[in-house]
Amino acid sequence: MPKLSLILLLTQGRNILYYHFTLVWLLIIFAGCNTKGDKIITNHSYYYWRTVYELSDVEKEILKKGQVSQLFVRFFDVDVDKNGKPKPIAPIIFKDTILYEIVPVVYITNRTLMHLDGKDIISLAKNMIEKVNLICETAGIKVGEIQIDCDWSQETAKPYFKLLDEIKQLLPNQILSATIRLHQIKYPELTGVPPVDRGCLMVYNVGKLTDFKTKNSIFDDHLILKYVDNLEDYPIELDMAFPVFRQLVLFRNEKFVGVLRKENYFDIDKAATFAQLEKTNNFMCLRDTMLANFSVFKGDILRNEDPKLERFYTIEKKILTVRKDQKKMTYLYFDLSSENFNHSIHEVPSFPIY
Asked: What is the dihedral of CA 8, 10, 14, 15, to 10 degrees?
């Protein structure tokens, strides 16, 4: 073979090899970009459920640690007055500088919906949005989404959905979302599907709080799995919220007495006054004592309800598997409060990466 031909052949071989190497490298890069772009969890957030918006230094660190840029803030409740008419309860006051995107949340009680006629619903929708807008204007908040929180029932689904329709008409340029409980997601043919742009699945409070036999009313992964087995066909996109609050449930003679939460919660496993019952999260009082506003007597039982974060993973993966075709999903914790973490940044949970 002539020397020049051999050189050309070798040059062509190197060019072909370089072409294939470049092509493979580009495919790897684009595959990596697609994987990143396909992540279903696109936003981290917390619920803020207090009547005064004022963040502690620990809470600011919590938001920084979680790379949180958005908060779902309870603006006010809607309940009935002594005449059975809807009224706003405990509207929020903003005292802090607002450095995050705010999603107003309005909680409406189920009993408010029970005796509303068509005119009442139209009036209520208008009053709710006017109240939200007034709070936003006073605090200098621009809103892109409003969320309605209601544990509606089969009996109140019709007036509630009519209310949502009316609110949606008042918000043509904003997203309207609604919270959805596990029992509502389990039986949509009975409870209906709210006419909103998005839903937020509240993945907690599935057990009966007042039942002595309940293992953990806040979070029981085995029980929750029974509620999320038909999420694939739910017709609206879903965000999901998990609990980070804890509580102690007091029983006397196996009868419900009360609940200790937040500032009244304490690490019962470190308290000498209580002894843990074997293989349970129940603790027996060893001598009469006082806890917050409760008199606790020898023999009383406190059920320690602490949603262990590692138990979320099974539920997260199940939901993300069946909702894999969603374009986006906000992952929330309920709720933002340093009291839920013993005022320590080290107890704050990380957000999952999917």
From this structure: 20
Does 251 lie in the same domain as 232? no
**Do both 148 and 235 map to the same domain?**
yes
- pLDDT tens digits, the chain, 354 residues: what are they? 544 443 433 345 444 444 343 333 333 333 333 334 467 888 999 999 999 999 999 899 999 999 999 999 999 999 999 988 999 999 999 999 999 999 999 999 999 999 888 899 999 999 999 999 999 999 999 999 999 999 999 999 999 999 999 999 999 999 999 999 999 998 888 899 999 999 999 999 999 999 999 999 999 998 999 998 788 889 999 999 999 999 999 999 999 999 999 878 888 988 999 999 998 999 999 999 998 888 999 999 999 998 877 778 889 999 999 998 898 999 999 999 888 877 567 777 788 777
Please indicate, yes or no, whether residues 296 and 331 belong to a single structural domain of this protein: no
Strands 93-94 vs 52-53: parallel, antiparallel or unpaired:
parallel
For the domain that residue 90 is a member of, what is the CATH number? 3.20.20.80
Describe the chain by its helix, strand, coil percentages, rounded to 5.
35, 25, 35
In a domain, 79, yes or no: yes
E strands within 50-151?
Answer: 52-53, 70-80, 86-89, 93-94, 101-108, 145-149
Is residue 340 within 8 A of residue 244, CB to CB? The reply is: yes
What's the total number of domains in the chain? 2
- Same domain for 252 and 114: no
* 297 and 190 fall within a common domain: no
User: Cβ–Cβ contacts within 10 Å for residue 234, how many?
Assistant: 17
Residues 272 and 155 in one domain: no
Report the candidate in 174, 199, 175, 97 with the shortest Cα–Cα distance to residue 141.
Answer: 97
300 and 232 share one domain: no
Both 192 and 276 in one domain: the answer is no
* CB atoms near residue 228 (< 10 Å): 20
What's the domain range around 286?
247-304
Summarize pLDDT for 12-71 with one digit per residue, the tens. 544 444 434 333 333 333 333 333 446 788 899 999 999 999 999 989 999 999 999 999
Residue 257 half-sphere exposure, CB side, CA atoms within 13 Å? 18
- pTM value surpassing 0.90: no
